[in-house]
Amino acid sequence: MNNNFNILPNVTGKYIHKSIKLIVFWIVFPVIIATILLIVYANEKLINFLSAL
Fold it and tell me: Which parts of the chain span the membrane according to its record (predicted)?
């Protein structure tokens, strides 16, 4: 009886931890990519603007 109580929270804890990691990854990863693309795009616009002057 005691063993079952120990196994269950351990398994659910692992799955919750994994899913939280996945959620964080899928939120943070696109945000980082979008930020990098935005910076590159902004720099290109800035360079074009400066070279036009």
Answer: 20-41
* Residue the block writes with tokens 């990098």: 36
| Alpha carbon distance 21, 39 (integer Å) | 26
The angle subtended at Cα 18 by Cα 12 and Cα 24, nearest 5°, is 135
- H or E segment and range at residue 47: helix 2-52
Collect the ranges in the chain with pLDDT lower than 70. 1-9
Q: How far apart are CA 11 and CA 36, in angstroms?
A: 37
- Residue 19 — φ and ψ, nearest 5°? -65, -35
Structure tokens at 26: 């899928």
